[in-house]
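Batch 3, record 17
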Amino acid sequence: MTTLRLTDEVASLNGIEARPRGGVWDAEGLQEAVGTLLREESPPARLTIELDGSVAQVRRLSEVPPVRGSRLGPLLSLQAGRLFRRSREPLTISGAWIDRRSGLAIACAVPETWLESLVTAVAARGATVTTIRVADRQPSPELVPPSLRASRVRQARRTTRRTMIGVVGIWLMAGIAYVADLARDQRAIAEELAAMEAPLEELSRARATLSRVDSIDRGLEPLAGDRWSAIRTWARLVEALPAEAEIEVLTLERSGRHRLEGRAPDHAAVLAALESSSFFTSASLDERAGLEDSASGTFSITLLEVMSESP
Amino acid sequence: MRARDRRAIARGIVVVLLGLGLLRGVPWLTTSIRATRERVAASQDLLRRRMTLWSGRDSVESVIESGRARLDELEKLVMPVTTDGDGVEWMSDRAREVVAAGGARFARLEHLVESTRGPVHVVGLALEVTGDESTLLKTLEALESQPRVSLRSLEVGPSAGASKDPFRARFVFEGYYLTAREVGGP
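Prediction for the assembled complex:
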């Protein structure tokens, strides 16, 4: 960083010096000196200016209220008349904390128009002033002329605005991309669903057909498969019954529940004969019918047929 | 009113409008995006299920083919009628055929209450005949040989009254039909 040093007698830059005409740095003299110094070397883009204590008024202060660093300058400005020599021109005042806790601070002041002339002279040579401070002081308050301060504020606002616009823009673009992606997905899905509508309709009809076939199949169960045959059951009964049994009334049902009425000398023998058949189970005398008569030999038997072969 | 005051008022209005926009717009936007996302997720789920269904279409088609073949078989078992009246008439014809084939003597034909088994309509008739053991067995055989008729019950006993025949038999049998709508199907 190139540094321009300025005392009340000489201005120096990289070992090159310029002196004021008439021994005092007025605005014209400053511009001429800066012009001379910056012409000698290739003009730097950025320049730091250090002011000697003979140019700037520097005060060491105590018992300063512990305000923030950025508020120290404005606070000291309120007491400019007490802290610095009276001047007809307004002063640019700045301050820096030496020790904030103990209230020790350093303050400095430079005539505002003089400082502006210096900055204008540097700017006229195409350079930019980065910092103006008091030389050989630690800490060294930074002196910022109103134009530079306004410029910095404007720059800061611009930066803030651009950052905000950038951030909002990024979020906005991300949101738009997200919504667009959703919409694209939704459209693609809708198209695929629409394309599948006809085949799925066909499948749905087919499923309804299958369901109908199934219910019709169940409805026609008595006709399907190995149908129950009354002749077959009759034949099995005739085969199972003992020879002395005589059937008078025979009732056969598709459900497999049959009824025999007849006469036989030994009811137990009839029941045993029926139950020993592999085609019948659970043969029992129907006592409610009131047909059991040992003397005449009449009986009424209810029996169940094994229906595993029948639907 | 100075320019500075006007600027302050304008800025205030802008801030209020921005605040309103944020308070109203952001929840609306959030809700809309959430609803859209849920809609997309639901659509994706539906699509996934349909794709699964669609991927199994070959097996479904073979099942449908077998279902149609089965339907053709079943149609051979139902009466070629679509109403109860026609069903009774068709069944009565079969009863007469059976009686004629068996050689039994016709006594009575009774129409039973119609019922249904799912989509299948059932027409029931009770046929009473008289005859000897041989004719009754032939009649029963003729009845059981009918492919579209199912015997529900059989009752055989001695003939009553002044009948010349020794036995009386009551055959309760059923025929099935599908209505025109069921025949057409979905």
